[in-house]
Amino acid sequence: MPWTPAEKILNARAVAENLLLYIEANQADALLWAHGSALKSLVRLETSIAEKNVPVYPCIQFLSDNSAESFQQTFIDGAYSAAFEITVQNPSPSELLAQARSYDKAVRSMIRNCTTFTTNTGAGANQSALLTIETGFDPQQMNKAATQFYQEWQVRATYTLTGE
After folding, report:
1. CATH class of the domain at 16-163
2. Rounded to two decimals, what is the model's pTM?
3. What averages of pLDDT result for each successive group of 10 residues across the chain (164 residues)?
4. Residue extents of the structural domains in the chain
């Protein structure tokens, strides 16, 4: 017998995929805006031919998420938070820092300007909103071959989602 629920829930986890698709579609222009000159496009790590232990740089990957829903009203009031990890590399630590800051600025701007984050979530676009964007940089490190420095950081976006 097929499941036919009487009550709706949100599909909040679709937000992460919506953001990654938006970033893929808009990153060339956003990176040019943020850096002032062209930077390599971010590759989605999970869709590249690379494995985590042999990544392609620069890369972005989904890291983690959390969601909560309240059913106290006639509508569904939810919150969703998704984190992404971004990694870039460069042989020069100072150039790496400048590039990492530009990638971060571009990603945060794309998250802030994404109007399709509610697609396939069950939430209404006019009743849902981005609440915060947090960024946390890890210390720069050198790869095992000692030929490139790399920088990793996480970007977390938190949304309020409202569905019927």
Report:
1. alpha beta
2. 0.91
3. 90 97 98 97 74 77 94 88 96 96 98 97 94 96 86 97 87
4. 16-163
